Amino acid sequence: MIERVDVLVCGGGPTGLLTGLGLARQGISVAVIEKCQKSEQAKFGRASLLYPRTMELLDQVDVWEHMAEIAHISRGYVNYNGGKRLISGTYHSIFNQLHGTYFDYVVNIRQKYSEDIFRKALEEKGGSFYEQYELLSIVQDDDAADDYALTVRVKNNATAEEHQVKCKYLVGADGKNSAVRQLSEIAFVGDDSGIKWFRMDAVVKTDMPDARVGMASIESPIYGHVLWMCQDHGRTRIGFSLPPKLADRFGTDITEAQVREAAQEAVAPFSLEFETVDWWTLYSVGQRVAETFRRKRVFLAGDACHSHSSGAGQGMNAGAQDALNLSWKLGGFLKGWYDESVLDTYEEERRPEAQRIIDQDKTLSALITGKIPEGVGRPGATSFEVLGDFIASTMRYTLGLDVHYETNLLNQKANIGLVSAGWPGPDVLLRRPGSRISLRLHQVTKNVGRFHVLVFTGNPALTGESLRSLRSYMDSEDSFTHKRPDIFNFLTIIPGDAPQSDHYLGISRFGKAFYDSDMSAACKYGFSAALGGVVVLRPDGILGYSGELGEGKELGEYFLRFVKASVESPQEPITKKVAEIESKPTGEVEFDGETTETKPVANGVNGVHADTQTSIPIREGPTETSVAA
Ligand SMILES: Cc1cc2nc3c(=O)[nH]c(=O)nc-3n(C[C@H](O)[C@H](O)[C@H](O)COP(=O)(O)OP(=O)(O)OC[C@H]3O[C@@H](n4cnc5c(N)ncnc54)[C@H](O)[C@@H]3O)c2cc1C
After folding, report:
1. Are 122 and 21 in contact (CB under 8 A)?
2. 163: which DSSP letter?
3. Given the DSSP bridges, would you call strands 429-431 and 306-307 parallel, antiparallel or unpaired?
4. Residue-wise DSSP of 457-470
5. Would the pTM of this model clear 0.70, i.e. be above it?
């Protein structure tokens, strides 16, 4: 067992594994401990439905491709009442509100398979995973000389041996009954709703039409809104509520045979036969949120700090957002890149989102159960109709496409462009020089803890002066890029097409050149050919800054609000060099036949062109991955 690690993550569920992966991709020393033996823990069940924004985030850390191989991809929906198909129904709004992303579908992949992929990726990137190690206690020494201020006692559940692990930071991703949260004396505020729901994963036969279209629902007079989702490996998730008046019928020692029978009643008038039942549960719905997501050196993420029903399938989706929001901030801070105030933005950004999910879930879970909460809905409407309206009104949020953060240290109010700071930077199509095949922006802005600076050049005949001004600032001693060259990845986005970018622009490009053949990328970000503009995407793809093309100084001021100006060597043993991490093949991403290398370019300096014909200064940075602009 490891004795010292920079970040210890407690909990090997999806949130813990993704937090570990996010840190490991930055070269941070990280270990994840998990109290159960995963092969023995419930093998299936729990999280299944994942949404587009989550897929975008998972794609950014190179795990999505593997998940897509297994997941059931749904682009269709059908709703039934009394055996008749109703075109418009509850989850219909998933598909008519699903736009603005290239992930224009939803998927069902059972949590076990997602976890397997995350765990493998974590270990491939150098993170450690310790199974059957349970966290028992935490002691924090504020005066520790070496920054390893936390001492965590863990027990090996196989041998009963106890160990001590010293770490700088601890992330509690240990689920709803989080030991980390309780030991840190953080209250979990909320209550139980008294609602109980059945969920089961099975191989079934049915005469319901379109049973494998993807998503379906059945409006049952007894069991409320019945959920039907196609999953990986030919499984189907069936979910329905336990009406209070039937509670006595099932008693406390409910059997699988009773659950099968109830499911058959719930999907009536359609037939239902079971070939196998992998998993079933009857669980109580509650809504709780932690009073804080951070206590000194302890962070909480995922179910450890927010818990709600699975009605909108938000739990793992929200856990992934937490993990990939926290990991780049904590990783960059540990590398000495950022001021500590960056860490405060994790709670500032994620806690209101957790609260929003919980507020919505209170109404949603009541409606799914067939109850209309007071003050909700329109007169005379059935609970199914009110549910449909409510789901439609919250669907963009549920899909993750409306999740955004307020203006803060990292999200600076934009004064130009169409995308507000705090919102995800839209994925757009670009072309590499000479290529006739498009690739997605997100394929070349992966999350390895660096900021992506997109320079939309506009038409150089009109923007020449601004381009020269930006170039001159970048080349000057004052440029922010000299303070921490390894933090930035520059992309120059040029309208149309040109035989050679620097010659066309009249200056040396910033990082790699990409062409925006029909100006659709610039339009999406709100930049004209006459003005161009600059956008900063945070490592998690959120837009942090949007400014005028010639305003290099303002761009620098954005970074200097939180980037530490001095180039200090990071404290031992924080990182492996990012170059080491990245030089491991990370696989290739295929998009319409285009192959995008996610490895460093030939000279080992990602984002820096090594064009011998242009006299572009390439500065030495503290690591081989420094990005000259
Ligand atoms: C029936 C059901 C259906 C669901 N469907 C969906 C869905 O479709 N989509 C969706 O997004 N979400 C869904 N969810 C929610 C989702 O399962 C959770 O939100 C998700 O699992 C949270 O992940 P996590 O990593 O935060 O916590 P968990 O998955 O609970 O993982 C925590 C881990 O920490 C370990 N642990 C606990 N204590 C310790 C300790 N002291 N030391 C070491 N390890 C410890 C646990 O063994 C566990 O493996 C569903 C939930 C349920 C119950």
Report:
1. yes
2. E
3. unpaired
4. ---HHHHHHHHHHH
5. yes
Local confidence band at 566 (pLDDT 50, 70, 90 cut-offs): low
To test the ligand 1 pocket, which listed residue (38, 135, 178, 303) has its Cβ within 8 A of the most ligand atoms? Answer: 303
Mean pLDDT taken over the chain? 87
SS3 content of the chain, % helix, strand, coil (to 5): 30, 30, 40
Tell me: the pLDDT tens digits for 32-91? 999 999 877 777 789 999 999 999 999 999 999 999 999 999 999 999 999 999 877 678
Where are the strands (E) in 66-213, listed by range?
72-74, 76-81, 84-86, 106-108, 128-131, 133-140, 150-156, 162-172, 188-206
Residue 600 CB: number of other CB atoms within 10 A? Answer: 17
Contact present, 377 and 366 (Cβ < 8 Å): no
SS3 516: strand
Beta strand 162-172 pairing with 133-140: unpaired
Cα-to-centroid distance, 474 and ligand 1 (Å): 46
Q: For residue 227, count CB atoms less than 10 angstroms from its CB and return exposed for 0-12, middle for 13-18, buried for 19 or more.
A: buried
Q: Cα–Cα distance between 224 and 323 in angstroms, integer?
A: 34
Which tokens sit at 209?
């039409």
Cα–ligand 1 centroid distance for 302 (angstroms): 8
* pLDDT score for 608: 29
CA distance 74 to 106: 5
> Per residue in 120-135, pLDDT tens?
999 999 999 999 999 9
Whole-angstrom distance, CA of residue 538 vs CA of residue 241: 41
User: Ligand 1 atom closest to Cα of 316?
Assistant: 11
Report which of residues 363 and 533 the model is more confident about: 533
Give the integer Cα–Cα distance in Å for 205 and 522: 50
| Cα 473 to Cα 467: distance, rounded to the nearest angstrom | 10
Helix (H, G, I), strand (E, B) or coil at 131: strand
3-state secondary structure at position 577: coil
SS (H, E, C) 297-326: CEEECHHHCEECCCCCCCHHHHHHHHHHHH
Amino acid at 486: D
Q: Is the CB of 484 under 6 A from ligand 1?
A: no
Index of the ligand 1 atom closest to the CA of residue 14: 25
Measured in whole angstroms, the distance separating CA 334 from the mean position of its chain's CA atoms is 21
